[in-house]
Amino acid sequence: MDMHTGSLYKSLGFPSVAIHEANTHFDFVEPSRTILVIGPMGSGKTEYAARLWRDAEVARRKGQSIAWLTSGGGSQKELFEPEAGIGTADRRNTFFVRYSLDSARFPDYPEDALAFRGGYERCGKNIATISNSFDLEELIRDNSDVGTWILDEAAFYDERLAYLVKREAEQRGIVFVMPTLLLNFRGEIFNATARLLMETSTDIYPLSAYCEHPECLENAYNTYRYYVVDGEECPALFFDPLIIVGGDRDSNHPLEPNYCTRCDAHHYLPGKEYTYFTLKPLGQKASVGDIGPLQKELRALCDDPEKSELFRLFRANYVEGPAPSREHMNALKVPLLAERAVVYLFAEQNLLSAEQTRTLVETLDLDREYLSRRLADNKRPMNF
After folding, report:
1. pLDDT tens-place values along the chain, 384 residues long
2. Residue 174 CA: distances (Å) to CA of 17, 121, 185, 199
3. How many structural domains comprise the chain?
4. For residue 164, what is the domain's CATH number?
């Protein structure tokens, strides 16, 4: 509430009170929008989409006489001839699109469910699972009456998506709502698609959540990845594989990650210094043919982690340093450290060739099943 409004309330005898913007229903009238809904895991992004879906059901029960308000709006002609927009896509007609790699998140719900942590909405025939922007383009063409598209986890798609939704919104007046992670578990922009969506979107709605640390009530914007090993919380290392499909349910398996929201103080991210001081330089040496130093470090991670450079840096920082941290040291309890490093160098940094990766797997007897799964998750599949 601004100063003048506050003075008016006071002069009328009302107490001082903070008045916030109303939490309104979704606007199906305004055309040509691309709306990003961003926040960490558990902040309610998909629940926002479910609320939009319910609003659409109410809006469709209104009389057909208002269709001119929720249809059209995507061309200059309609500015002068409003009737030109009638019969095009109606923004009260909604369609939910799920990304293919995310399709197994809620196996206990119906196949047509727009599922979120607190429940689900049934979408009937207006739901699909796709893999890329070309699939989306085909869906839009086949459902010309749909005026509002909900693209869950939009940042997972190829970069072309950002310009596809921009073009369709501007030319046809349709609206795209895109609940998505903007930051990965490292606190970095998720990928190039996320960056382009930020640049091209017309609206951005940031969501937060309580920090899920048991002794904290701060707002949290970070997605925290951790593993449970012998009953203890073990934060993921900075070079943990970027994409791990699944992980939306609590798991006590040491190879399956858990996620929660954390504030900056409780968002533990050990190993960043090691990644840039040690791991990546070793990968760069390997990329020009000198794979020996990397192989030596990976062997230590496999056979005797306390002889590794990773352990030396951790001990210096989190045991002997000015801010000891058991939480950070727990990251070393997570199994398959060498395998995680290989995925980072091959799939993400492109510093190892496929031949070098196979040589390391063979020489160090690395876990082939784990590597195959994680490389497939990160779109660099390889058979061993």
Report:
1. 566 666 766 677 767 666 656 668 899 999 999 999 998 887 888 889 889 998 999 999 998 888 888 987 644 444 444 444 444 799 999 999 999 876 666 667 777 677 777 776 777 798 899 999 999 999 999 999 999 999 999 999 999 999 999 999 999 999 999 999 889 999 999 899 999 999 999 999 999 889 999 999 999 999 999 999 999 999 999 999 999 986 556 788 999 999 999 999 999 999 999 999 999 999 999 999 999 999 999 999 999 999 999 999 999 999 999 989 999 999 999 999 999 999 999 999 999 999 999 999 999 999 999 999 999 999 899 988
2. 39, 22, 32, 19
3. 2
4. 3.40.50.300
